[in-house]
Specification:
This protein is mainly β. The chain contains 6 helices and 78 strands.
Length: about 1100
């Protein structure tokens, strides 16, 4: 044989014998040479005699020696196996089937050179250097499915296992194509280059034919049947006609997409037909899966919507006249099924339809909405809704700075937070009193308020939280848009800057709000403090952490000196605290401002401005409403003069000697100086809230670079502490950005909340596009990164003689300070109580500004896929801990989230954005025996509606007690789980799939100490921008003194957050301070010089 396609007749024994008989005889010693051999078979022998048939005589004829003879292949024809242009399937040519189409099937060759693919099921193929099974391998191995090109084909008939071999076109070696012993292919010729066949077989789509189950359309290979030596094509696909997809019957049925691909009489059809949400089948369905015949789908369910008993609107609507659910027929309402509605106690409805008889009307479904039944008044020509007996939802819009009502504010009320285009919403402007009312019965409302010149407000309200008694009312305070300031964050460095046109000129605000309750006596206070001003007083009066106040036998902190009037008058010159002129002349009024928007200080009858009594604590609150002169610092402690205010100051020369050294100078700090002259840097409490009437607002105008503390105190004595206050929150406005801090429900309830620290950096010249100056900005809300609240520095009240802060008598003398501005304590709370208080969580309104809040992010597990990230928690998640997940959106249409313990999933989300329906679908599969699968739609998911996979998102899980888990999405609480924790199991890892740039953080309820022990003495260059400007405050000769330049030695901690740098002889570093290294630092005074020069310009 030459080639696998050439058929030859083999030489018979007769032909061999006849050939031998015609040979010329030479002698007996010469062997005969055979004419042909059949492989290894020679003459049949009996000894040396040949056994032949058909010869007249065999005398003298002997078999020749056993040897091979070969045909002259060069004389043989070169043959190809060509598949006929027809398909063979049960003997029926494809061309005779009217429901199938073949194209480009002429001249297709089986075998020979061309493009091949390693066959599945044959294992890996070894490439050899020669076409011989015993040849040396090249090291190259072809796996199943690998494609390659064969340039030459040869045949090996002589080996024990004959093969057809193909030489690879790239010259890398030879590979087996077909076993001649078994006829099995190790490689299959496919379409493509090198003369490959492009034969295609498909069903006739023009007549709605599709392949039946298991049938495949497309390319057909030309193959060779080696046993019968016949070339043939793969069989054609079996086709059937597609049935028409059932309709949804006006929205009453849900029809799966597979129903449009079912073939008549095909049992594998996966068509699912069910009743739409809110619709019920007229007859019980035995199955939801249907198949079709030549007549189409038959026996589909008849579904009808129902009207169930209406909700009673919180007990305000009388629904006792409604019985069983009523069916809404498409032909019209049922006359024998109705519902009689009226308001309780025969009250008149505030909106909606009239009281009386209602019938169930059929409402056809739309493209994405199911058919529904709706109660309508009997005989009504138009839909009017149910009678609205529940109180209207009232909204009052006021100005955050002075509580003035805002007229013309546009208030939109959505039934949920999706705010999709076309979503049903109500919109009304506020009247002259800032009021607007909505007659709706929704359980939740998403409110959007906009007014020119003010920042847009958005928030979701729960009716149960805003309704107190017969009224449902929410108050919204709008914050004015600042004149300058825009926050931008660098994605690569993670740093955020506040950009302004002028250095150091910006507007910061803190707004305290809560939901008023039943108690009209509730009073919450907002505290704001310049920590840099406050720590300056702590340094000079030796009141650092651990120093004893006047309550101890031997006090070291001399804060009681501030009771002395000369000390007060001296200290007010730097970071001075003043009484404010208010609209009502009391602390509860609104702070007055002049025409230049400067807060007005109260003056006494003699025309002198009135400082507050205690200039030590530096908190702006209702007792100390204004701070000014923030660019100045005193260069020493103010001397105690000894002017007594009987009967409460009873110092004498033995216990408290008079200090006769000079009054300190009020130095203007170059790094903090005003930029345009005058005192235009201030902090002011603009409005105080009493009698459960929020908000409270504090403005920080053009304040110097530094750290600013924000805290909240529940001042009133009404029942309960902060945990009893609903919707307690503080909004921090910086430039164009807002951050909302919420007080989480905590297992430890307190009157004081340490909200956040804001750190504003020094002005820097912006070398990029946009505004000319930038200031680094950070907000800290975690305990370990915030300045702790301490009893020694709490804000105090005026000393009115009614409630003096008395301490135990020592001999004939009493050390006294001021009463703390916390009403619920007989004596000030200890540092341990303050340290144990809860800390809230701050979140940006825009997640593009989330990096303003520094986070301790977890690293994902190495070795995972690019789509999936796994994050492990070393300590696990215990009570009150929180998992926070950030992302810039997600890839594709679906993403997943899993909470696990030891790789066992406790809780999982599968989130899909259905773009055709403009909604999100969240499936929560059941992972334990105690739960069931849940499904959320868009109305429970507060994301932006337009392609939310491109919007940043934030998800938080906070564990409450042993078994509950609160779920927050973008700051809105959406669920509280009570089934995922079997016992005290702790979550140990989070698995995320398909999220964009995910970040995960574990916020521990119990945090490590924020204090660090410092042992290395500061080098003078660490205590200033250069050695000449170095400052070290240390205790010397009985008082704290300032040592400058090369004498700035003996300190251990340093302040380096701003260009105003100094050191202290304290040996414990807390937030705002760091331990010294003892190493010389490079001078940085040029930074200040450059800024000053530019500022002067």
């Amino acid at each position: 044989q030459r080639g696998e396609h050439l058929r030859l007749d083999t030489c018979s024994h007769k032909a061999e014998s006849e050939c031998l008989a015609t040979r010329e005889w030479v002698d007996e010693k010469v062997s005969w040479e055979p004419c042909c051999f059949i492989r290894d078979v020679g003459c049949a022998r009996k000894g040396d005699e040949a056994i032949t048939t058909g010869l007249k005589s065999t005398a003298g004829i002997k078999c020749a020696p056993k040897r091979k003879a070969s045909w002259n292949e060069a004389q043989m024809p070169a043959c190809k196996a060509i598949c006929p242009n027809r398909f063979i399937s049960s003997g029926v040519p494809l061309s005779g089937l009217i429901n199938e189409v073949v194209e480009q099937c002429n001249g297709c060759e089986a075998g020979g050179p061309g493009k091949y693919k390693a066959s599945h099921g044959q294992g890996a193929l070894q490439v050899m250097r020669e076409p011989n099974p015993k040849a040396e391998p090249t090291g190259l191995i072809l796996q199943n499915g690998d494609e390659f090109i064969v340039a030459t084909v040869v045949h090996d008939y002589e080996s024990d296992k004959p093969w057809i071999w193909g030489e690879l076109k790239d010259g890398s070696g030879w590979i087996t194509l077909t076993s001649l012993a078994t006829g099995m292919d190790s490689a299959t010729k496919i379409d493509g280059e090198a003369g490959g066949c492009t034969c295609q077989a498909s069903c006739d789509r023009s007549d709605m034919f599709h392949p039946r189950a298991g049938e495949v359309e497309g390319a057909r290979a030309c193959k060779l049947d080696y046993e019968n030596n016949v070339a043939y094509f793969d069989s054609e696909p079996l086709c059937g006609k597609v049935c028409a997809k059932p309709d949804d019957d006006h929205g009453t049925r849900q029809v799966s997409e597979e129903c449009g691909r079912c073939i008549a009489d095909d049992s594998t059809c996966k068509c699912e037909v069910t009743c739409s949400d809110g619709n019920k089948a007229r007859q019980l369905q035995s199955s939801t899966r249907y198949t079709c015949s030549a007549h189409g789908f038959e026996g589909l369910p008849i579904c009808e919507p129902q009207c169930t008993k209406p909700p009673d609107q919180g007990g305000h609507l009388d629904t006792s006249g409604c019985g069983k659910p009523c069916v809404a027929h498409q032909s019209g309402h049922s006359s024998d099924c109705d519902c009689h509605l009226q308001c309780k106690h025969h009250a008149a409805p505030v909106g909606g339809g009239p009281v009386g008889r209602y019938v169930c009307k059929f409402i056809p479904g739309g493209e994405f909405t199911p058919a529904s039944g709706r109660w309508v008044p009997m005989g009504a020509e138009r839909e009017m809704g149910l009678p609205l007996c529940i109180p209207k939802f009232e909204i009052v819009v006021i100005k955050a700075e002075d509580k003035a009502p805002l007229f013309g504010a546009v208030v939109r009320l959505y039934p949920d937070s999706t705010m999709e285009p076309g979503t049903d919403f109500d919109e009304h402007p506020t009247d002259q009193h800032g009021n607007v009312a909505f007659a709706r019965e929704d359980a939740t409302f998403h409110v959007q308020v906009s007014l020119r010149g003010y920042k847009v407000f958005q928030k979701t309200f729960d009716r149960d939280e805003v309704c107190v008694g017969p009224t449902c009312k929410a108050q919204i305070a709008l914050v004015p848009v600042p004149g300058d300031g825009e926050i931008q964050c660098d994605e690569e460095t993670g740093e955020c800057y506040l950009y302004t046109e002028k250095p150091g000129q910006y507007d910061l605000k803190a707004v305290l709000e809560w939901q008023p309750g039943e108690s009209a006596r509730r009073d919450l206070d907002l505290w704001v403090r310049s920590w840099d001003c406050g720590v300056d007083a702590e340094v000079r009066y030796r009141c650092g952490n651990g120093h004893k106040t006047e309550t101890a036998t031997k006090p070291t902190c001399t804060r009681a000196d501030f009771r002395d009037e000369p000390v007060r008058k001296s200290e007010v010159r730097a970071c001075g605290m003043w009484l404010a002129k208010t609209t009502d002349g009391k602390d509860s009024g609104v702070t007055s401002f002049d025409g230049q928007h400067q807060p007005l200080i109260e003056y006494d009858s003699g025309g002198e401005p009135i400082p507050i009594d205690n200039q030590f604590h530096k908190w702006v609150s209702f007792t100390s409403r204004i701070m000014k002169s923030m660019d100045r610092r005193l260069d020493a402690k103010s001397p105690y003069d000894g002017r007594k205010e009987q009967p409460f100051s009873l110092w004498n020369s033995e216990t408290k000697p008079y200090e006769n050294y000079a009054t300190p100078r009020a130095e203007q700090v170059p790094a903090l100086k005003p930029l345009q002259g005058g005192d235009d840097r201030w902090i002011a409490l603009q409005v105080d809230a009493r009698r459960d009437d929020p908000p409270e607002t504090t403005t920080m105008m053009n304040v110097p670079a530094g750290r600013y503390q924000i805290a909240v105190n529940k001042y009133s004595k009404d029942v309960g502490k902060l945990n009893k206050v609903d919707d307690l929150r503080v909004t921090i406005a910086i430039g164009n950005s807002e951050f909302r801090c919420r007080y989480d429900r905590c297992k430890r309830d307190h009157d004081v909340w340490n909200v956040a620290n804001i750190v504003i950096g020094d002005p820097e010249k912006n070398t990029g596009k946009g505004k000319k100056w930038k200031h680094r900005v950070q907000i800290f809300d975690k305990k370990q990164s915030m300045v702790a609240l301490r009893e020694a520095t709490l804000p105090t009240k005026m000393f009115d003689g009614k409630n003096p802060a008395r301490t135990p008598r020592r001999g004939n003398f009493i050390y006294q300070y001021f009463p703390v501005a916390i009403r619920n304590y007989v004596k000030p709370p200890s540092d341990d109580i303050l340290d144990d208080s809860c800390h809230g969580i701050c979140e940006p309104v825009s997640d593009f500004h989330r990096r303003v809040l520094p986070r301790d992010l977890l690293d994902s597990e190495e070795g995972g896929s690019s789509e999936t990230q796994t994050y492990h928690f070393q300590e696990g998640m215990v009570n009150m801990d929180m998992i926070r997940i950030w992302a810039d959106g997600w890839h594709g249409k679906v993403w997943e989230l899993s909470l696990q313990v030891a790789s066992k999933t406790l809780y999982r989300w599968e989130v899909e954005w259905q773009s055709h329906k403009k909604r999100l679908r969240v499936v929560i599969p059941c992972t334990t025996k105690r739960c069931k699968e849940e499904l959320w739609e868009a109305d429970a998911w507060p994301f932006a509606p337009d392609e939310p996979n491109d919007k940043p998102l934030r998800i938080e899980f906070q564990r409450h007690d042993r078994r509950r888990l609160a779920v927050y999405i973008n700051g809105e609480k959406v669920d509280e789980l009570g089934h995922i924790f079997p016992g005290a199991i702790s979550i140990s890892q989070v698995v995320l799939t398909n999220l964009k740039k995910p970040e995960v953080e574990l916020l521990k309820d119990k945090t490590p100490s924020s204090e660090t022990k410092c042992t290395k003495e500061c080098h003078p260059t660490e205590c200033g921008l250069d050695e000449d400007g170095a400052v070290c405050w240390k205790y010397h000769d009985g008082r704290m003194q300032k040592f400058s330049g090369s004498r700035a030695k003996g300190c251990f901690v340093k302040h380096v957050e701003t260009m105003h740098r100094w050191c202290w002889d304290e040996q414990v570093a807390s937030p705002g301070l760091v331990c010294c290294t003892g190493k010389r630092q490079k001078p940085q005074s040029r930074r200040l010089q450059d800024w000053n020069a530019t500022a002067e310009e």
